[in-house]
Amino acid sequence: MWAPDKSAAPPPKMDSRYTSTAGIGDLNQLSAAIPATRVEVSVSCRGIPGKKCGTIILTAEELNCCRDAVLMQFCANKLDKKDFFGKSDPFLVFYRSNEDGSFTICHKTEVVKNTLNPVWQAFKISVRALCNGDYDRTIKVEVYDWDRDGSHDFIGEFTTSYRELSRGQSQFNVYEVVNPKKKGKKKKYTNSGTVTLLSFLVETEVSFLDYIKGGTQINFTVAIDFTASNGNPAQPTSLHYMNPYQLNAYGMALKAVGEIVQDYDSDKMFPALGFGAKLPPDGRISHEFALNGNPQNPYCDGIEGVMEAYYRSLKSVQLYGPTNFAPVINHVARYASSVKDGSQYFVLLIVTDGVISDMAQTKESIVNASKLPMSIIIVGVGPAEFDAMVELDGDDVRVSSRGKYAERDIVQFVPFRDYIDRSGNHILSMARLAKDVLAEIPEQFLSYMRARGIKPSPAPPPYTPPTHVLQTQI
Fold first, then answer.
1. Is the whole-model pTM more than 0.70?
2. Which residues form the signal peptide (predicted)?
3. Fold observed for domain 68-204
4. For the segment 331-349, what is each residue's pLDDT rounded down to a tens digit?
5. Is CATH 3.40.50.410 correct for 209-452?
6. What crossing angle do the helices spanning 430-437 and 249-261 adopt, rounded to 10°?
C-alpha cells in the first residue's frame, strides 16, 4: 500500500472549513453547508462509546468544465539505485495541486522492474483530473522504488504544469529528479536521475449524451423468462403468481426497471419477447416468442404495454423449459448487426429467475454480440443463487467461448432482491436501482463507438419559431 511522504507539512486551515461530530449517516446533511469553489469538511466518527473513532476529511473543489484528455508517456534515465540485490523498481506518482497549497494524487504509473532507465507505458488522464483545467497549476511528480511490503523508497520529485507538458518532447520537458533530503546533506549532490516526456497528445472526450443529442437512437428489447422453474402461476409461491391485488416479482421488476430505461428510448415502442414456454394451440416449445402474439410486429406501447402483454401471455402459455438465453440474444444481435454506423444502439433487458440451461451457447452469443452496437441487462428475480449471471457479467473475468474472449464487456447483472424490502412488495430505493441498472451502459456504448472511430453527430440547433409567430404572440 503506497502512501505519500508523511514529512510533508499539513495543508493550512481554511476559512471555509466546517468541523462536525457526526456518524457516517450524517454526511449527506453536511453537503448543504458546502459552498462553491473549494472547501474541507472534518467529520468526527463515532460508534464505540468513550473512544475516538477517527476523523474523515472531505475535500471538495468545483470542477472546471474542460472535457479534454491527454495521452502521455514518460521515461527516466540514471535513477538512484535503491535495491541491495538489484537496481530499482521505479514508478511515478502524479499530484494535482489544490487551491490551498495541498496536493491530491491523480495518477500512478505501473512499476517497471529492476532498471534505472525505465520506460513507462503511455497513459490517458483527463485534464480536469490533472489540473482542473488550469494550465498553469502546479503538477508534482514523485518517483518511487517499489517494495513488496509497501514501504516504497522515495527517489525524488519534480514539478511541472500542463502548459509546460503541452510543449511535447523537447529540452523543456526533461526534468531533474531531486531528493530534498539528499540535497540538504550532500554538497556535491546534483540529482537522482532525470525524467523525460516522450509524447503528449490531447484528445477531446465525448460523452454518452453527446451521441444522444446528435441523434443516436437507443432501442430496448424486453425478454421474460417463462420457464417452469419460476413455479406454477396459480400458486402464491410462484414468481409469476397472478395476484389480483399487487404485482408479482416479474411485474415489479419489469415496471421498475422498464420505467428507468424507457426514458432513453425515443419512440417508447418495445419489442417484448418470452422464452421457455409451450405455446398454443399445438404446445410447441419456444425460446423466442412475441408477448403480444404477433411475431411480425412484437412492439408494445411503453412499459404499460409490455406489462399488459406479459399478463396476457401468462394466461395462454404453459411454463416449461429449458432456460435458454442464446435465442433472444441472437434475436437482438440480428438487428444490431445491420446498423453499425452509430445511428442506433440496442439494449436487451432479460428478466429471469437465474437458472440457465444453455451456458455454452449463451457465452458464444455474448462473445459474438460484443462486436455489435449492443448491451445486455440481466435482472435476476427470486431467491436463487445467481452465480451463472455473475459469470456472464464479466466484470472480473471477460466472457469467453471456444478460446475467444468478448471484445468488450456488454453484460450488466442486477439482483432485484437487493432493492426490495423484506415483504418483497416495496422497492427500497428507485434511485439506487436506476443507478445500478444503467451503471455500465454509457461506458459500454462509448467503448463500441471508440473502437469503431464513430464520432457523435452535431446536435441540431435549438428550435426558434418564425419571426411572424413571435410578433403574433407579442
1. no
2. none
3. Immunoglobulin-like (2.60.40)
4. 999 999 999 999 999 999 9
5. yes
6. 70
